[in-house]
Each structure stands twice: as structure tokens, then as C-alpha cells.
Amino acid sequence: MGSWTDRLNVLRDADELVHRCHHGRALSLAPSVPVSACRRRWVALVALLSFGLTAAPAASAQGVLDRVARSGVLRLVGPVDQPPLLSLDRQGQPQGYAVLIASRVAALLSQALGRSVQLRLEPLADPAQLSQRLGEGQADLACGVPFNWARDMMLDYSLPFGISGLRLLTPVGRLDAKPSQLAGRRIGVVGDSLAETELRGMQPAAVPVPFPDLQAAVAALTAGRVEGVIGDSALLAGLMQERGLRGFALAPAVPYERYPVACAVPQNDSAYRDLVNRAIAQLLQAYVDGEPQTVDAVDRWIGPGSAMNLDPERIRSVFDALLMSVEALRPLPPAASR
To answer: Which domains are assigned to the chain?
Structure first.
């Protein structure tokens, strides 16, 4: 149980056990396993996994699972000015959809390691440092990160937990957001971002005005120094709500470009990434299944009444699509009383 291969075998055995418990009565080559036996063997597998993680050899000392097993702390890193993904409440505590995801990861780590795991946010002033912090073992997790091929060379991505896209924030009635309308217009973007690249590609005659972050770009828009801002839909919606902006709107209805939003983790740490993926899959599945606590937690950040104000049925359809590549993970039913 000391090697990473042994641990991955335990995880694989656990997945096979869950599959047989859930689908034993369906058409399957695997024999049906009684629920009570499933529960006993699942507990045994978690115990073996915990032993394997805490008794890891020194050669694996740099892995996230080993660090968390020793410290009891999962370090979340990211900018804290990006509602509804990540921000601070009035008491200075982290909040947002990214924190919800990270807290589920911490809970699953606690279960697997057999010890309490505390989620600790380490604010990141410069988003460009994200890859460096993760790559050097100075952070364990960053959630709400759009996929980027260059960044993928330095870190790994988890299963997506949402879909976002690029849209234009502009005063109501000024621009209809068609690329032809942007020619000659001063449009705010975050420097060296996907938004800047997209703007230059779809309308070379536009005038990109780079800013260090989306907050500065929106401030310039409200001050009249630019005519619009192109950026991530969720973040722009969050800033609109946070600042109480009136008379502004996001367009077009269909984003210029869509992309998955996931968590970033240190590269080549597959056992840890497997657990992150498992935590995300469990949350998405719980929402699709209508589990009340999960539905309330997700809706708080992206559902009705939030900055995103998404319809629950739309959220379920997106989550269902994101789960198409993995097996459903649902909690086992209580053991039948005898």
C-alpha cells in the first residue's frame, strides 16, 4: 500500500464496487453485490486508502495528498475580487462558487485521509502567478480557471464544473455587440487575455484598451473611458451585481466564445486529481438528482436571484452534459435492517 500504484488500485477497486452496488440488478456481467456488503467493503477500502496515503514513502513527499495528510490543510489560491466565483464576505471570509467546489474537495480528502482537513484561502494578487504557485507546491488548488493550452503545459485541469464564455458589457442601447459594431470602438479587455485575442480576431478594426484586471476595465467603462468591456460572462455579471450597476447589459445572447471552467491542480499528481474529479462529479450529480442541500448551495451563486440568475433546469442540463464522460457517483443507500 506504499506506492501510488497501490493507491490507484484501491481507488479503482472502490469505483468498481460502487458500480456493482448501483447496477447489480441491471444487465451486467458483474454479479450483484448486497448493499450491506458494499458498505462494509467500501469502508474497508477507504481505510486502506487512508493507510496508504499516510504511510507514503519519502519519494512521494511532494504530492498534495501527502502534504495534506501531514498538515491537515488544503490551500486554495486565487484572486478574491471575482464574484460569484471567489470573493470575501463582510467578515473577510472566502465565499463563492469556487469555495463551494473547494470545500467539497476538502471534505472528500478528509474522508479518504481519515483526518480533519481545513480549507485555507491564500489570496493571489497577480493571477499570472497561479501556475507558478501550483507548480512549485506553494498551493494545492485553484477553482474557476478557464482552460488554456499554454497553462495546461504547466499544470493539470480537473473535470469541469461549469461553462462560461466571453460577452460584452456595455451601456444599454449603445452597442448591439455584433463584431461589425465594434469597428473603431474603444473596448476594454484584460491585457494578454483570451478576451483581447478574441477581440483582435473577430474585429481587427476595434481599439483594444488593455487593463490589469476586469475590475479596472469595468471602472473605466463606468467612467466613460471605454465604450464596452469584453470578458468572462460570470465575472462581469458578478461585478455588475457587486457594484449595483444600472443601465448596463451583457451581450450577445450567445457568447462570442464558450469554454469549460474547472479547477487547476499541480501537474502529474493523478491520485490527487482523481479525488478532485470525484468531488466535482459528486456535486454535479447531487444537483442533477435534486439533493436539496446541494441545489441550495449551487443556486446561491449561479441560480435564480444570483448574479448569473440561471434557471435550475438550464443548470441541470449543463451539469448533465458535463457528467457524460464519467460514471454517475451517488451515495449508497443505508444498509437494510435485519
So the answer is: 1-57 (no CATH), 58-162+261-325 (3.40.190.10), 164-258 (3.40.190.10)
